[in-house]
Prior knowledge:
This protein has 135 residues and is mainly alpha-helical. The chain has helices at residues 5-33, 43-60, 64-70, 73-102, 108-134.
Amino acid sequence: MALSSFQITTVRSVSLAMVGLCCLTYAVLAMAQDRPDPLLWYVPGAGGILASIGIFASFALAGRQEILQATDELYRMVNHRAQRHSYWVALALYPLFAVLRGFDVVSVNTSLAAMGTLTGASYLLLVTLYEWRLS
């Protein structure tokens, strides 16, 4: 049973979206509760590992031609665009959290946990959004 390039792309997009939402949820809950561990600390990492296994399995079940189609120039362009934009989102988090820390809105540990998960979520959600917009 060989998967099509559309199925590979769907598995990849849904997996990345789910992990991105998991990271975003973790950051929002951390900020809302002012705790660095609103959920079990390994939840975002475990979600990422499960997503990587699913993506790897979808590529392993596909033929060479389907893999090439799923990773064509358009995917590389979308991926590069998401990387560029998430870099700037990650940089914008530093002054934002500096202000929040300056007014003592969040603790140091909470801000580090939120910034870490928001950095990952920005790439994961942007690459998914850009890919879905082109579909």
